[in-house]
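User: Some background: our group keeps a shared notebook of sequences we're curious about, and every so often someone picks one and asks for a predicted structure to add to the entry. Today it's my turn. The entry only has the sequence so far, pasted here. Could you supply the structure so I can complete it?
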Amino acid sequence: MARPDLVLVADIGGTNSRFGLVDAGEIAPLGITSVDNDRFAGLHEAIPHYIAESGNKPVRAVLAIAGPMKDGTVHLTNRRGWSFKPEELAQKVGLSRVDVVNDFAALAEALPYIDELKPLGPGRPRPDATKAVLGPGTGLGVAGLVHHGGKWIVVPSEAGHVEFGGMTPRETEIYNVLRRGFGRVSAELVVSGEGLERLDMAVAEVDGEKVEHREGSAISDAARNGERRAREVMDLFFDALARFAGDIALTFVARGGVYIGGGVLPKTLDLMDVARFRKNFEAKRPHQKLVGDMATVLITAETPALTGCAAIAARG
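Assistant: Of course. Here's the predicted structure to add to the notebook entry:
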């Protein structure tokens, strides 16, 4: 039997999806499970699977989705074939309502409620000032969080797809390889899990080495083992992340801090030179002082987007 106060919350990514349940008005989801999206043809299969496994029957859902909605249809940017209309999905899975929010908008919603954070450099976020959140995972998500009239207002975006370019002759040569292959270089093309792999192949091509695809985990492991190319690729990735984070800091004037989520950085943080990251983050002449006063922090919470969905559900 459906419980009228029980809400399904989910973070639907390109590779994995996380599900949980929360009583309306509560913020901390329970029964959290992660599933491999390859196991299902779409959410019309994944949601009933989770509900059956949980043994509980929610009445509605709030879903964080990595992708935009167009003409009433939700499209997952990095998961082809999973498009859906929320009202049709609700009917198929037996829920009264399915609300959809951008995954990084959900992450922004969570910022006032999470304290699992690791500082990246000096400074502390101002508690009631505008915040920005970004994160390289399967893609590159971005959102803002503005404090106004005693309330937090989320500003969703698709800023991960803005134009991006190299800052040095070496970077420009590498980015030109990417441009030939993809037509344009967006921030997401570089600052993402697949971006790490693209950088690796581009560096190999520029240096006349054999171009073979390597998984991101293989690249980071090679960097730890002292491989020159892998070490350069990691530095290129971190430098690009820092510059993009600085651009987002300026875009939102994020005196409340720039928060970094996503799945890539927690797995590679040991390879980051934090001082170099901050130097690149702050290199925004003529606004070095403005950006320099903004804190950068890594989100270490395991399921922050679910917390954001719960915050949305609490508002009704």
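Suggested note for the entry: Residues 33 and 53 are 10 Å apart (CA to CA). The radius of gyration is 20 Å.
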